[in-house]
Design a protein that fits this description.
This protein is of the alpha/beta class. It has a single domain, classed as Alkaline Phosphatase, subunit A. It is built from 17 helices and 18 strands. A hairpin with a 2-residue loop joins β6 and β7. α7 packs parallel to α10 and α9 runs parallel beside α12. The relative contact order is 0.17.
């Protein structure tokens, strides 16, 4: 904060500076949406009503070239540590790691103890640290956030869960794993995820009000991860919004993003081959899909509404002016299922889990809702691909850093930034030292991310130079960023299993492959990627690896493991009993 204030003083923004702020360490509120597409919010070109997020954008720096992993747990590991996901022990979500990789210690899918969370560092430097939301970095007691630097917690450990009640959203889980301060926790009867998470955050903040210690609040929402659910009053506002289909929406968002300066005015976008023809759908399918997207929009607006409640609370308690907000998403939009309404088989299968797919109650308690590939593509538009894939639509997401102290220099930054940059930025803003080679008596990995404060202070227009590179791999999908360029490899069947080269500053939609025009650039970046793999101990995926199938297989093994153990034990006892019986008969005969 001190660096920001000094920079603003030089810019002549002295009217917002007071002596109290100059000496007081700032509060930090880190907000992470789940599976939020690049243009879902209003400041990035979306039609969804997000006044709170829009206000934060107007009071801060809005990043348009910020990247994460294309899946939740790896992003969260890097976000909270500043270390590459492979070195942090979370190269993929644990549910999708194949046995060939899981035999290695750094491929467990849970946050390793060779990394330090930003919460631990802030706690050691005098901060209160709170977390309310999705964790997904380990379920064992010692892996919970309460034991990774957070003073007060209420957290969910799975990939996702129902937003209305305490139940799992997929049959790979026996229950929805919620804990509070390290112990199992029962959700209240009036639970709705976004409201509840903000309520708990306010409760935690108020519990230490007046002790003059700053706080760090981490709020990883469930919105808009499946099942996509929202209060009816939010969803109903969008019932007419999406009736013209995904192509109209994609083009509208592209135009808005250009007008706002989010993407270049002369940039283009591709039409994903997974997109369906809206006009070829039946009227029933059009109506159903439009409501699926309406619930999606309603869930985002509901999240924004509850973020607004937190902002209002901080204002009413005199804490807003000394609070820095960081808002982002863990990855791009996710599609699940298909673009047509689910058939009888799918409806029957969902009913076995206690879910309805009925149009009338879609998004409400007891319903299960997703968006298909075409609306997911529109949600990520004008970028290519979506969650899980290394295309920009899977990796490029919103990032806003806002504070009263930087409101008069608010602007858009197109500098390349990466998820590992968040932790060093928070440390810089709070005057907290990064860990050396050891922390808490144990060796730890060095933070690889870079502080964004030179961008916040307008000391520089980029923090990564043309010779610097950032590598990435997840489930066989891969990318490397260097300067304005990106090489990317997307596996089939959606990807083409080919390395491509793009200038993602001029062409964020990845529409023009430069591989043949710039072969030396491609080869140099491929060489850097090989070095990245060696440095970060990246393992190859097995031949034929499919993340969705692997998740199902792993889930089935886990659920059946107790039954198989009992079965094997019973079989062993039966064999031993038969052996003893035959031995006894043999003895009688002799």
């Amino acid at each position: 904060m001190k660096k920001i204030l000094q920079a603003l003083t030089l810019l002549g923004s002295t009217s917002i500076i007071c002596s109290a702020m100059a000496t007081e360490r700032p509060n930090i509120v880190l907000i992470v949406a789940d599976d939020l597409g690049f243009t879902d919010t209003a400041p990035y070109g979306g039609e969804i009503n997000t006044p709170t997020i829009s206000q934060l954008a107007q009071q801060g720096i809005q990043f348009t070239n910020y990247h994460t992993a294309a899946s939740c747990a790896p992003t969260r590991a890097m976000l909270l540590t500043g270390v590459d996901s492979h070195l942090a022990g979370v190269p993929n979500i644990p549910e999708a790691i194949p046995p060939e990789q899981a035999k290695h210690d750094h491929y467990q899918g849970s946050l390793s103890h060779n990394v330090v969370t930003v919460a631990s560092l802030l706690q050691a430097s005098g901060y209160h640290t709170y977390m309310s939301g999705k964790w997904h970095l380990g379920k064992e007691k010692h892996q919970l956030p309460f034991y990774r630097g957070f003073e007060r917690t209420v957290s969910m450990s799975d990939t996702g869960a129902d937003n209305w009640e305490q139940k799992p959203y997929l049959p790979i889980y026996k229950k929805a794993n919620w804990t509070a301060d390290g112990e199992e926790f029962q959700l209240p009867n009036d639970f709705y995820s976004s409201r509840f998470l903000v309520d708990k955050t306010i409760e935690f903040i108020d519990s230490n009000a007046g002790d003059e210690q700053p706080f760090f609040a981490y709020i990883p929402f469930q919105a808009v991860h499946i099942p996509i659910q929202a209060p009816k009053e939010f969803s109903d506002r969008y019932l007419e919004t999406y009736k013209e289909g995904w192509e109209v929406l994609r083009k509208s968002r592209q135009a808005n993003a250009k007008a706002l300066g989010i993407v270049p005015a002369d940039s283009d976008m591709v039409t994903m081959h997974t997109n369906s023809d809206w006009d070829a759908l039946s009227e029933d399918d059009k109506r159903y899909n439009a409501k699926r997207m309406a619930v999606y929009a309603g869930m985002i607006e509901a999240m924004d509404f509850h973020i607004g409640r937190l902002v209002d609370h901080l204002k009413s308690t005199g804490q807003f002016e000394n609070t820095i907000f960081i808002f982002t998403s863990d990855n791009g939009s996710e599609y699940n299922g298909q673009d047509r309404a689910q058939g009888m088989l799918q409806r029957f299968a969902m009913s076995l889990q206690g879910y309805s797919l009925d149009y009338d109650t879609l998004g409400e308690k007891g319903s299960f809702n997703t968006i298909g590939p075409s609306f997911a593509s529109a949600s990520a538009g004008p970028l290519a691909y979506y969650k899980f894939y290394a295309g920009e639509g899977g990796m490029r997401v919103p990032l806003i850093i806002a504070a009263e102290a930087i409101s008069k220099s608010a602007r858009i930054s197109n500098a390349f930034t990466y998820v590992t940059d968040i932790t060093p930025t928070i440390l810089d803003l709070t005057d907290t030292k990064a860990p050396a080679q050891r922390f808490g008596g144990r060796p730890v990995e060095t933070i690889s991310g870079r502080s964004l404060t030179p961008l916040l202070n307008q000391e520089s227009d980029r923090i990564y130079q043309s010779t610097d590179y950032v590598g990435y791999e997840l489930g066989g999908h891969a990318a490397l960023f260097q300067g304005d360029y990106k090489i990317v490899f997307n596996r089939g069947p959606v990807g083409d299993n080919q390395w491509r080269l793009y200038n993602i500053v001029r062409d964020p939609g990845e529409t023009r492959d430069l591989s043949s025009e710039l072969p030396q650039q491609l080869q140099a970046m491929l060489g850097n990627f090989e070095q990245y793999k060696r440095d970060n101990k990246v393992l190859p995926v097995p031949v034929g690896y499919d993340a969705v199938k692997q998740t199902g297989l792993n889930g089935a093994r886990k659920l059946l493991k107790p039954s198989l153990t009992i079965l094997l034990l019973a079989g062993f006892i039966l064999v031993m009993f038969r052996f003893a019986y035959h031995q006894r008969q043999k003895n009688k005969q002799t």
